[in-house]
Amino acid sequence: MNDRSAQRLAMLQEVLVSGGTLHLREAAELCGVSEMTIRRDLSTQPSPISLLGGRLVMASYPGVTPVYDLTEQQLSHYQVKQRLCQRAASFIEEGDTLFIDCGSTLIPLLSQLSRFRELTVVTYALNVANAVAVLPNVRLVLLGGLFYASSQSFGSDGMGAAIERLGINKALISAAGVDCERGVSCFHFHEVGPKQAAIATAMQRLLIVDASKFGVVRPAYFASLEDFDIVVTDDERAPGLLERHPLSTLSISLA
Fold it and tell me: What is the pTM of this model?
């Protein structure tokens, strides 16, 4: 951590240590920098401070529960996500029909799809659809329903059945938590149906997740590790997951 970043985080920690919260704008003004700089400090360095819903809190502050913010997630571990998506792209073949999950992890993958001559992308994520809609080589299948702004995704009771009617070669799934005992989870319950349907239907199932998600459990469980063929991650300790699941065919691909 550079000295200025350390000084800013130390100052903010002193303000927050007695409890309460601090708006991101107020934190930026206090430190004399931009809001983006504060976001970068928090997303690139270990810190007891969390940014939840636009406000800074101490991670150990009583009553604090995680709040999903897509903008914050896009900034978090961005370079790692780029490497993960480069590795995930190596599994894509010409003519594939891909299920691409919602969230921020898989967004860097979309810029790499233009090198293929023909692909089909199935998604329930508006940000994914907007990115691939301009690619002339990609046929887009956007699954609709009620729109959830927090994750830029849609949900409906019939979405799972719609996915199961499609011939999906590869399902690229993201997650907010991966735990060896309690499985793979996310923040939003409306994502469970489409994720599970894609996992059940696809010929190959890839979990793309950065190391910060290991050992984390989120509210909405949707799969076990055994449900995936490949885990793409950046943690060199990840092959140890196989030792916990000796009967699994799960393989680890490091970015």
Answer: 0.70
